[in-house]
Amino acid sequence: MSAHTAQQILQQDPTKSLYINGEWQAGIDTIANINPSDITDTIGEFAQASGDQVKDAIAAARHAQPKWEATPLEKKQSILQAIGDEMIARCDELGTLLSLEEGKPFAEGRGEIYRAGQFFHYYAAEVLRQMGDLADSVRPGVKVEVTREAVGVVAIISPWNFPTATAVWKIAPALAFGNSVIWKPANLTPASAVAFAEIIHRQGMPEGTFNLLLGGGSSVGDALINSTDIDAVSFTGSVPTGRKVAAATAPNFIRCQLEMGSKNALVIADDADLQVAIDAAVAGAFGGSGQKCTASSSSHRHG
């Protein structure tokens, strides 16, 4: 049933699910996408990128980035707005697909897609709010002007627990401020990534502005973080992998953003309402299929 549902939702053949330079491509291999609530159920076979395809995606992103950065602000804004509109309009079907492959309840899968669409709406508005700064210099007759420029090519490596929302937190702002993107999602949740890439594909961005690479961390991920043609990396995942990302990017002096290893840290103050603390602990432990990573605290302050 899930494979049939996936085929209805995805317009793209899963075996040709790499999106590089505006084109869908097959990989060197495929990997089975298993429904975690029924491990006898295969959602589909999804492509795995080769080393050469990683290089192709980086080259495409490098070529496209100046074009995308130079795109007029109103056009950028309309593109990001359209992405958010479609995600929200299709949150039921895309939420179903996300829940099938990730394992979370449908209500949470639907909510994740809807919220991700709202992220795009927010950053669509940010496109039109880009401001600089003007200040006096210590030197007479000299003004200091600060403007903001795109970083360049941004590699995004995201986890499986919130496969769309966590990635969109990174992708939407990267695109809003003129960067090109190469996204490597978790191999456990490829279908949601392909569905999102299909939405991107229809928006008329310069070819290569957005690229989707499916594959393992030890192959595709390592190739991205060690590349000298990447300008920034944003990673969410485990502490050991985060250390590898930091170590790989440091010699190349590229920007590196890490979110690692949290699992609902809970601080209970002496004056806390224990029932509230218990509810927070239970929600943190079992909400989101036990895979949420939000820190919280419980205290009762009188002001």
How would you describe the overall organization of this protein?
By secondary structure, this protein is α/β, with parallel strands linked by helices. It contains 10 helices and 13 strands. The protein has helices at 2-9, 51-70, 73-89, 91-102, 106-127, 165-176, 190-201, 217-225, 239-249, 274-286, and strands at 18-20, 23-25, 29-34, 42-48, 133-136, 143-146, 153-157, 180-184, 210-212, 232-237, 255-260, 266-268, 296-298. The radius of gyration is 21 Å and the shape is globular. The mean pLDDT is 92.
Task: Using brief descriptors, characterize the structure shown.
single chain; 303 residues; alpha/beta; five-stranded parallel beta sheet; two-stranded antiparallel ribbon
Count of DSSP strands: 13
Q: What share of residues is helical?
A: 40-55%
H/E element sequence: HEEEEHHHHEEEHEHEHEHEEHE
Strands across the major sheet, in which order?
9-8-7-10-11
What's the average pLDDT?
A: 92
Would you summarize the structure shown here?
With 303 residues, the protein is of the alpha/beta class.
Protein topology:
Elements: H1 2-9, E1 18-20, E2 23-25, E3 29-34, E4 42-48, H2 51-70, H3 73-89, H4 91-102, H5 106-127, E5 133-136, E6 143-146, E7 153-157, H6 165-176, E8 180-184, H7 190-201, E9 210-212, H8 217-225, E10 232-237, H9 239-249, E11 255-260, E12 266-268, H10 274-286, E13 296-298
Parallel strand pairs: 7-8, 7-10, 8-9, 10-11, 12-13
Antiparallel strand pairs: 1-2, 3-4, 5-6
